Amino acid sequence: MTTGAFICGCAATELNSDECSFIREHRPWGLILFKRNIRDRAQTGALVSRFRELVGRPDAPVLIDQEGGRVQRMGAPEWRAYPAGRRYGELYRDNPLQGLTAARLVSRLMADDLSEVGINADCVPLLDVPQPDGHDVIGDRAYDSDALVIICLARAIACGMMAGGVLPVIKHIPGHGRATADSHLDLPVVDASADELRAIDFPPFAALADLPMAMTAHVVYSALDAEQPATLSASLVEGVIRREMQFDGLLMTDDLSMKALSGSMTDKVRRAREAGIDMMLHCNGDLGEMRQVAVAAGELTGPALDRARRATAALRVPSDYDRDRALYLYGRLMPESV
């Protein structure tokens, strides 16, 4: 049974007949969910199960962006709302042990919410190192402005996710913190020197390069490739991400439907594949675009298939934990968030 080298979205809270036919035919590796796809626990669990039934893989990845703060697809009133990433950094600055404990505790609680409905991958931790003139698209999503603090907190978050049976996806490799534009709308260009990038922006990704999956940044780093954003740049993918950072996990694009990337959907996929990307991510649920992505992405084979298999093999059965006690400790550490 073949698997497509792409992750798709869907339009609503249920898969319609055309989407079901598309998924049966092209068998995407995974599905990504957004607020438009989520109503409550029963509906979300049913949507996830239906996708896995259609692709014929009970462990097929179902992803979500569940960071807390502004980026929380599963939210109140059905699920608890969690703080933005910056709050962990603030705690860490006052008391490193409390900051690390809170980061791991909240990510474990989030993982419990996700695994309850069958979601097994979360696009966290965010490893971007924000700069004073950076666009607010990152803003308080960043854990801190110090790379070493980010590394410590991100590791705690990744551990909490994996203990809860959810795979982390580090983002936005090799770093979105300097971008002065929102890549959802425009193509950011970063003119920092290669030395600055290697000293400040890249270390968090190198430090967590052992994690199973990463998502690229639609950002041009002019000192390293003046023409192409990282998602489409062989010099960034092969030279920096694979060789310098030593990341050998599954590498996926950020959403191909974002406006930072120009050209047809087929062209974007072709250029990303040529750059060395393993997995195409398409999020907006437009079935016409999804068909283009599926055809251009083709079958998951070779090193990309090996990395995809290693990623899913890293999934664990959630470890036992006392959720009531975790919530009690959460209230003690972050009373303003309860």
Verbal overview:
The structure is a single chain. The chain is an alpha/beta fold. It has a single domain, classed as Alpha-Beta Barrel (TIM Barrel). Helices cover 42% and strands 12% of the residues. The strands form three sheets. It has an eight-stranded parallel beta sheet with strand order 11-9-7-6-3-2-1-12. It has a two-stranded antiparallel ribbon with strand order 4-5. Strand 6, helix 5 and strand 7 form a beta-alpha-beta unit. It starts with a strand and ends in a 5-residue tail after the last helix. The mean pLDDT is 97.
Quick gist of this model?
This protein has helices spanning 17-26, 41-55, 86-94, 96-116, 147-163, 194-201, 203-207, 234-244, 265-275, 287-297, 302-313, 323-333, and strands spanning 4-8, 28-33, 62-64, 66-68, 71-72, 121-122, 167-173, 189-190, 213-216, 220-221, 250-252, 280-281. The chain has 338 residues and is an alpha/beta fold.
